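Anyone able to model this chain together with aspartic acid?
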Amino acid sequence: MVKKISAIVFFLCVLPLYSVLAQSDVYPSKVITIVVPFAAGGPTDAVARVLTRPLGAALKGQIIVENVTGAGGSVAAARVAKSPPDGHTLFLHHIGHSTAVSLYRKLPYDPIRDFEPVGLVGDIPMTLIAKKDFPARDLKELIAYVKANRAKINLAHAGIGSASHLCGMLFQSAIDTDLTTVPYGGTGPAMLALMGGQVDIMCDQTVNTTPQIKAGTVNVYGVTTKARVPAISHVPPMHEAGLPDFEVAVWNGIYTPRGTPKPIIDKLARALQEALRDPALRQRFSELGMEAVPESKVTPEALRVQLKSEIDKWGPIIKRSGVFAD
Ligand code: ASP
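re: yes, here you go
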């Protein structure tokens, strides 16, 4: 009898562990979706699409991208937080995952509690651009013109909490001028509006702006990093061009819903590390002005630390800015 009970207890203890390990052996068992919280044709979408091939190869599975737009990324985050935690729904989000919690009064998810970090992906500088016929040749002229004509100038962004929104807020505060802002579901559509002359200026990631800057279809006034960006090395950093403390880079990470089994997270993190080593991916990233993070940061722990410290960093800044959304 005692033997029989011990055997049952043994199986009850070992079975769940066995099934979790087995889960990771058969993972992925169906198509994996990377949810992108912004519109197709924008920077986050571009990063996801560059990742799908090498990440799919590393996981020996198929990956598709789904764009879920709205509220600067929060609509997608809320959706992912409620998705099955089986590793088949991945979430690629950027700095906005750390700022939404301070910007939105009612957020239907918690960026720390409801997600499992997988790893950081890369950092993307931003650029300040304007429509082609905007009457300013450099940053100093742009600032003077914007200040003198603020009532008729509008600034595009990808929703409250998006990188373009944060950078646009920093710009308005740096020049002490409030502008009319125009939100889009992503800077893919915002870029089309800017090129079509419906909006005037925008802060956007090099992944989206580099091809336009190179083609000369937009005006560019500065990059938001201390160092120049090799892909567009003629563009001066904002701090050299006239705004000394202007610095912002867009960090990106991959998450899964809370409760995803650890063996699956570990498998995903290893696959992400392998994908980020891929020479074609690295070349594409650098053509777009993006830098993959060092491999030591492509881990759940590094992303957890980054997310937490960015939440702590942005909270007081946003509180002081007085910008909140419902
Ligand atoms: N990442 C957004 C996009 O892909 C833009 C932003 O955050 O500003 O459209």
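The mean pLDDT is 92.
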